[in-house]
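Hi all, posting the design record for the shared folder.

TITLE: backbone redesign
STEP: 1 of 1
STRUCTURE INPUT:
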């Protein structure tokens, strides 16, 4: 029904209430030959205009015919149809059962009514005959009367029987007694509405009553963008490195050759970390253009792996270009550090540098609440003449001090590309125990010298992840609520700014 039709029906309701003082919705629907539900809809819409009308809900019960009841009203009761199906000469019960609808119940009811009789000794087998000369189909008459004028003329016994035979059912009929409200009026003050695109397209705006524009209303606060917690912590760590004079390395290549990720770092080609269960190998393009590695440098790397040199005995195993040229998802940002250090070594004159990187790395790990197949590695690198383990420990202490971590411990460990190497530990006041917070070391000569860095230049470096400090800061227990498909974006909207108090 269009808006206009509903308004018209509502106006008709008002006119009838005005004329008669009160009306019943069912009676009005009958009088207007209109669907009762549409009358109810008009009443509901009038109720939304304040006290125009009073509508008292009336719940009545009445008997209505079922589908089977309507069939009986039209075609006669089951027993009457059996009676009229019997010829004067009689017929077999089977013939009745075959040809008359609902014959089973009709047959027994006709027998009970004394309308028909069975002759079991009839010639040619049992026969059913009419017993009564004529019958009155009271059921059909009662149902037709109920159907036509809704009067409840049935006796209680008849109701019980017809209900039992599923010919009638009792239904609740909700209707409304309508009277004039305190603000009764024959005209409907249209509600104030907001303009919508549909009104403009349909032209219905012409009959609408629009709210005054409130130009003083405050606008809806725009839902601005929200930084992910990881990016907030990354910004904090980036600021610390920049304050310490570090330059960010270009880490915008997730795909890396095994040469830069492993071989340039003097990581042996047989190292388990280079297996597929630890590393994601790229199938297309499967190999990098190894010719882009300066051939002389590649040869020096090959030699230091296979034969040694620079004071090292090497690994004394064959070194294969086919291994070096394979493409992988980088397993650490130290691959980028290697590229940067090689580039540094090509300078005419060596200049000390401080580099850092914070970016994604990928490892073929089993995921759990604290591990994903990727994480963000934070790495600091310093290259200069004569750097020592003391410098490494000192710069790490300086770095973590800016994160308010002063209780540090260094534990010797092994890395393939640094010697010596140290794991970093910090005392966790909450857990009352020392927790690992990173790793570090001095790059080996077998990595630096083939690059062409001058004798005496040493490079110190350390690394940690971005996810661990982020989870601690934002009190997130499961890394999968921080990153991945299950992340609740509300977490991104709600988490506070990342502040690192300055010390
Ligand atoms: O981040 C780690 N832990 C951590 C860091 C910070 C933190 O809170 C902040 C101080 C306030 C709390 C915890 N870890 C390193 C230690 C562990 O979490 C470890 O279980 C997970 N590690 C990752 C690698 O796991 C496969 C963290 C990641 C890691 C480890 C080593 C490096 C980088 C990241 C490195 C390196 C390196 C070494 C030498 C030369 C160059 C780089």
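Okay, here is what came back for every position:
SEQUENCE:
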């Amino acid at each position: 029904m269009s808006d206009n039709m509903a308004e018209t029906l509502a106006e008709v309701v008002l006119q009838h209430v005005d004329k008669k003082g009160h009306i019943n919705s069912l009676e009005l629907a009958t009088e207007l030959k209109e669907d009762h539900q549409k009358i109810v809809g008009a009443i509901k819409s009038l109720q939304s205009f304040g006290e125009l009308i009073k509508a008292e809900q009336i719940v009545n019960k009445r008997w209505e015919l079922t589908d089977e009841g309507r069939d009986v009203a039209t075609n006669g009761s089951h027993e009457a149809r059996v009676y009229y199906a019997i010829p004067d000469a009689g017929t077999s019960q089977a013939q009745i059962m075959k040809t008359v609808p609902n014959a089973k119940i009709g047959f027994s009811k006709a027998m009970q009514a004394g309308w028909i009789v069975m002759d079991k000794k009839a010639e040619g087998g049992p026969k059913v005959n009419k017993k009564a000369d004529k019958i009155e189909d009271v059921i059909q008459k009662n149902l037709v009367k109920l159907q036509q004028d809704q009067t409840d003329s049935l006796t209680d016994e008849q109701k019980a029987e017809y209900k039992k035979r599923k010919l009638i059912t009792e239904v609740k009929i909700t209707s409304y007694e309508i009277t004039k409200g305190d603000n009764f009026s024959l005209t409907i003050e249209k509600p104030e509405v907001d303009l919508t695109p549909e009104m403009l397209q349909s032209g219905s705006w012409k009959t609408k009553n629009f709210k005054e524009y409130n130009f003083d209303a405050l606008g809806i606060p725009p839902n601005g963008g929200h930084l992910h917690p990881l990016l907030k912590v990354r910004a904090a760590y980036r600021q610390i490195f920049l304050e310490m004079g570090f330059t960010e390395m270009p880490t915008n290549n997730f795909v890396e050759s095994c040469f830069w990720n492993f071989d340039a770092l003097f990581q042996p080609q047989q190292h388990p970390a280079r297996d597929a269960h630890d590393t994601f190998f790229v199938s297309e393009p499967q190999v990098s253009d190894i010719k882009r590695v300066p051939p002389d440098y590649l040869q020096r790397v090959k030699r230091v792996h296979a034969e040694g040199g620079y004071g090292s005995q090497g690994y004394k195993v064959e070194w294969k270009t086919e291994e070096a040229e394979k493409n992988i998802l980088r397993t650490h940002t130290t691959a980028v550090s290697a590229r940067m250090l090689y580039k540094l070594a090509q300078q005419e004159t060596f200049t000390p540098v401080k580099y850092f990187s914070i970016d994604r790395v990928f490892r073929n790990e089993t995921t759990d609440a604290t591990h994903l197949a990727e994480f963000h590695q934070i790495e600091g690198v310093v290259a200069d003449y004569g750097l020592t383990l003391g410098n490494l420990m000192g710069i790490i202490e300086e770095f973590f001090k800016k994160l308010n971590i002063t209780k540090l411990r260094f534990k010797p460990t092994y890395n393939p590309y640094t010697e010596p190497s140290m794991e970093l530990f910090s005392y966790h006041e909450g857990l009352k125990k020392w927790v690992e917070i990173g790793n570090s070391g001095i790059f080996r000569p077998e990595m630096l010298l083939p690059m062409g860095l001058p004798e005496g230049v040493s490079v110190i470096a350390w690394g940690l992840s971005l996810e661990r400090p982020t989870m601690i800061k934002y009190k997130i227990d499961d890394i999968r609520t921080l990153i991945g498909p299950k992340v609740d974006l509300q977490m991104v909207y709600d988490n506070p700014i990342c502040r690192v108090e300055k010390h």
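COMMENT: The two ends are 72 Å apart (CA to CA).
Let me know if anyone wants the other runs.
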